[in-house]
């Protein structure tokens, strides 16, 4: 089922404002049988007050049992089927460091490796070279010159970097050059169709020049490229929903994901309160605001239950400032669960809260995992959250006569 | 959406153990308005104790309103979309009597019929000939000899038998020979493509020789063949989930269904306690155990509410022995509902209970239809039960970065 075929046909414009607050990895688990989750433990008077006038549901990021990464997790929330729309490894890596890929670009994730005297890989991660040692190498690799091609090299963490090739007529259907084993030489890049062959030839020339530049480095004297991919072809928010959308995020990954669906990146906020300042500043200029809050995920990944509780409480504290803007539709959700108990993204449905004057409240008085699964929105695939948002904002006509 | 594309990509191995207990036809109905179902009536202290630490949901075997047979019911539980994967009538009949079809085999369901002096069918079911009279006929039909073809004939109940043809290059796209009316002659088998034409020619030769063998029998002097079908091409548990799976069933049908997805048939248990003995014996050697319990279905089919209650109580009684094995994930479910009130398989969602250390308990304290529909797993298609099982066992990586 193509949701966007519907929203393209049915969208109408009005003066409504939709705010989607994404607390990353929001859902959790109790630490012991009979216990409460992080969200259920947190003191969150503002969220609970919203629960009384809102409707809850349990959002499935992909399908039952599947834990998503940040990419598919956010695509779902943005209304893009996360199975249908796949962001390749290289494109996600570029997106994650804030590189704005253009249509036709091909990105790959690079690894520095150690080559022995025979050119065979002796360490696939260059001795896990430190970031401060590897970052200057990426800058040096910008010296590679290929006629007719723009080459962008960006450092990532430790042995990783990103390379993006920009030239007409490229595609990313290119095989990895990483042989996935030591004692073997890096492979040649191999394109699986004509435009990908062109990209592969460029990649091979890049590797040739780069290997010369790296020659003599004690650890990082070679490289492999993986996850070649173009910019995913995602239709824009403007087109599929008729929304002028702005994104207010601190971390590059979430800015990048928002950019892929055509959101404008707003401000340079570093704190939650600064993010709300930015929202306030741009309130008149946009129809839809995506605000990303990272720390519910990172504390969950650390397995720090108490700290995740605290981060939820800090999140709760800024809500009155957002409510004061009087959004037509206010949504609180997460891109997936990150239970401290598991120290990882999980498959558990995400407690999701939607407030509007016509949301049909479900009678719950608190917001949490156990109320969400019994909420008025039921269990629903995350990709339907945007149609719910549009409907509550009066931005969708009826379907059929 | 292809679930197995996901599970193939995301599966990881570990030492976890998954146990799926299938009480056939578990779901029920009250016998009068305001009454309780069989499951709600049963005294089931062990299931209720599991409900307190587990999570429930209502499993839809196919989709709302569709009552499945045993084939699609189990395929769903095993994670195979029951609409996408179809087991032909002949193949199901062969499977149901425990015949292990090989890829390339073509099976058909046979009916004995009565032919008049002109070779026209006067009784399509040979006077509903008794099983003890029809079984020896199947044995006699094994005398049919077709060069280059192995022919297997197996008795079923009353006027039914199964025939399987084994030869290179066969397919099951063959029309029934049953004219579906008395006063007509049996039809010739007709293949709808080249390999099916070959199977049809073999079937026609079989019919010719078989009719000679049956000649003179007062009731069963003819036959018709229906539901020609090959072995369904189901990818194996090992391949799609990375699981070494064992099946512990008493009835041939369920052993056969398990075999079709590559499970090993374990032991020769006749009672539930013997089934648990078998599970205990093989505990170290398998990652996944499917245990099938028939009597919740057969008592429901009989319309015997009290007896179904008793069978649920007997099922409950063996649970502590299974829990003592300490499975990582313990699932209790059914392949469909068989309400005594309807004396038949039904479409009602099946109360399903999943217990693991990270299942996110939903706060229910009993197990039943009314708690399941308000459970933490919500209403879900049965085909997602396996992804939930794998996730809870830590056997799935996250999807996308």
Describe this structure in words.
The structure is a homodimer of 401-residue chains. Chain A is an alpha/beta fold and 401 residues long. The first copy, chain A, folds into 2 domains: 240 residues, Alkaline Phosphatase, subunit A, CATH 3.40.720; 140 residues, no CATH class. An 8-stranded mixed beta sheet of chain A has the order 11-10-12-1-13-14-2-15, with helices on both faces. In chain A, strands 3, 4, 5, 6 and 9 form a 5-stranded antiparallel beta sheet that branches. In chain A, a hairpin with a 5-residue loop joins β3 and β4. In chain A, α10 runs parallel beside α12 and α11 runs antiparallel to α12. The first copy, chain A, is globular and about 70 Å long. The two termini of chain A are 20 Å apart. At the A-B interface, α4 and α5 of A face α1, β15 and α14 of B. Chains A, B: It catalyses: (2R)-2-phosphoglycerate = (2R)-3-phosphoglycerate. Chains A, B: Keywords: Glycolysis.
Biggest interface and which pair forms it?
A-B, 41 and 32 residues
Order of helices and strands of chain A: HEHHEHHEEHEEEEHEHEHEHEHHEEHEH
Shape of chain A: globular
> Could you state the CATH homologous superfamily of the largest domain in chain A?
Alkaline Phosphatase, subunit A
Count of helices of chain A?
A: 14
Protein name (chains A, B): Cofactor-independent phosphoglycerate mutase
Catalytic activity (chains A, B): (2R)-2-phosphoglycerate = (2R)-3-phosphoglycerate
Pathway (chains A, B): Carbohydrate degradation
Keywords (chains A, B): Glycolysis
């Amino acid at each position: 089922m193509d949701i966007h075929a519907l929203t393209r046909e049915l969208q109408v414009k009005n003066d409504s404002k939709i705010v989607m607050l994404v607390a990353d990895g929001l859902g959790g688990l109790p630490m012991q049988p009979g216990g409460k989750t992080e969200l259920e433990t947190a003191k969150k008077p503002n969220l609970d007050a919203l629960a009384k006038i809102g409707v809850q549901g349990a959002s499935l990021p992909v399908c039952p049992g599947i834990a998503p990464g940040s990419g598919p997790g956010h695509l779902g929330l943005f209304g893009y089927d996360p199975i249908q729309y796949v962001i390749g490894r290289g494109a996600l890596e570029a997106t994650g460091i804030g590189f704005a890929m253009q249509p036709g670009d091909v990105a790959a994730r690079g690894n520095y490796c150690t080559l022995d005297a025979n050119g065979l890989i002796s360490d696939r991660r260059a001795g896990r070279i430190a970031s401060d040692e590897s970052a200057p190498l990426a800058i040096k690799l910008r010296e590679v010159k290929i006629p007719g091609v723009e080459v962008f090299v960006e450092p990532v963490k430790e042995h990783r970097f990103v390379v993006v090739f920009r030239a007409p007529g490229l595609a990313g259907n290119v095989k990895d050059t990483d042989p996935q084993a030591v004692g073997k030489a890096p492979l040649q890049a191999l394109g699986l169709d004509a435009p990908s062959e062109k990209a592969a030839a460029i990649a091979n020339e890049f590797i040739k020049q780069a290997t010369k530049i790296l020659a003599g480095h004690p650890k990082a004297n070679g490289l492999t490229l993986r996850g070649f991919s173009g910019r995913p072809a995602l239709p824009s928010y403007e087109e599929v929903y008729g929304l002028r959308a702005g994104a207010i995020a601190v971390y590059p990954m979430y800015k990048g994901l928002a950019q892929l669906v055509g959101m404008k990146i707003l401000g340079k906020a570093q704190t939650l309160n600064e993010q709300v300042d930015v929202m306030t500043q741009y309130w008149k200029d946009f129809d839809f605001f995506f605000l990303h809050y990272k720390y519910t995920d990172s504390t969950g990944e650390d397995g720090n239950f108490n700290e995740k509780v605290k981060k939820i409480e800090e999140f709760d504290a800024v809500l009155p400032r957002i409510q004061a803007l009087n959004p037509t539709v206010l949504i609180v959700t997460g891109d997936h669960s990150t239970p401290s108990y598991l120290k990882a993204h999980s498959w558990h449905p995400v407690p999701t809260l939607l407030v509007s004057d016509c949301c049909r409240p479900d009678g719950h008085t608190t917001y949490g995992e156990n109320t969400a699964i019994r909420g008025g929105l039921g269990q629903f695939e995350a990709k339907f959250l945007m149609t719910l948002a549009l409907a509550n904002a009066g931005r969708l006509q009826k379907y059929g006569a």
